[in-house]
Amino acid sequence: MDNIKTYQHINASNAKLSFGISRMEAIYTQRKGKPDAPHRHNYYTALLIKQAKGKHFIDFESYPLSDLQVYFITPGQVHQLIEEQVSIGYSMVFSVEFLIQNNIPLSFIDDLNLFNNYNQNPPLDLNIQQFDKLAYYCNEMIACQDNTHKYKTAATGALLKLFLITCNQICTLPTDNPQQLEASNSILKKFKQLVESNYLTWHSTSDYARALNITPDHLNRTIKSLIGKTAKNYIQARITIAAKRLLYFSDLSSKEIAYQLGFSEPANFSAFFKKNTGLSPSQFKKS
């Protein structure tokens, strides 16, 4: 995927920066309203939108830009923002290094379950009171960036954490059994880690259930209760996204991609891809 545009640093002129926040209207003006090409970042991105119209493509899925939304984009995801008019809101970016500097463990980000991969990126919808609370944190972060006081980075880290916790509270349903929820979240976290490490060779739910010492049915029910999709759906989505990225951004043939993704025969890959996308690999590449 060498052809895809990848932003390695949060600030092109200062590679040491590990956090940035900007107003979306300023970015729109800077880009003269022109959309960027599909690209990816090596850092986390969150968009808090007050007013917008257009489309947001994340890993080839299209979401309508609308008022009062929050988007979360994980490092490595391919996305593109197409605005039909100037958007009003905030764009913040932060790296793993920023989390480390502020004693925010990666497990905290994982447990929030906001930054999801593979066809699980619909925006979080807000009411005006929720937006105003999140916008307050954003404005405080902007004020910190414009300040020179000694603890501005620590203050920004604390505000970011409050922003993310508030978003998590908005999208989390209450439960009568917190212990069961904690156990389910632990399974989800381990399952995601296993998929990321093994999707090229493990294609079935039973592979992951065996590694987790649970039954495939229990794994499917647990994952579906938390993300709305079964473990099988999640595994297939991960393989499909990898296939789409390779088809779109590389010069590899479908046969080469099939073997790279762990399919024993190119025909099996073609059948899998068409079942999950409605298109053959060659049709997707042309489109």
Structural summary, described in words:
- The structure is a single chain.
- This protein has 287 residues and is an alpha+beta fold.
- The protein is built from 12 helices and 10 strands.
- It has a 5-stranded mixed sheet, with no helix packed on it. It has a 5-stranded antiparallel sheet with strand order 2-9-4-7-10.
- The longest helix has 21 residues, at 178-198.
Overview features:
five-stranded antiparallel beta sheet, 12 helices, 50% helix, alpha+beta, 287 residues, single chain
Overall spatial form: globular
Mean pLDDT: 88
Oligomeric state, counting identical vs distinct chains? single chain
Q: Which structural class do the helices and strands define?
A: alpha+beta
Q: Give the termini distance in whole angstroms.
A: 18 Å
Strand and helix order: EEHEEEEEEEHHEHHHHHHHHH
Helix content: 40-55%
Q: What summary fits the major beta sheet?
A: 5 strands, mixed
Strand portion: 15-25%
Question: What Rg do the Cα atoms give?
Answer: 20 Å
Number of helices: 12
What's the topology here?
Blueprint (H helix, E strand, L loop, with lengths): L4 E3 L11 E5 H7 L8 E3 L2 E8 L2 E5 L2 E5 L3 E5 L4 E6 L4 E7 L1 H6 L4 H7 L11 E2 L2 H18 L6 H20 L6 H21 L6 H8 L3 H12 L3 H19 L4 H7 L5 H12 L3 H6 L1
Parallel strand pairs: 1-3
Antiparallel strand pairs: 2-9, 3-8, 4-7, 4-9, 5-6, 5-8, 7-10
Helix pairs in contact: 4-5, 6-7, 6-8, 7-8, 9-11, 10-11
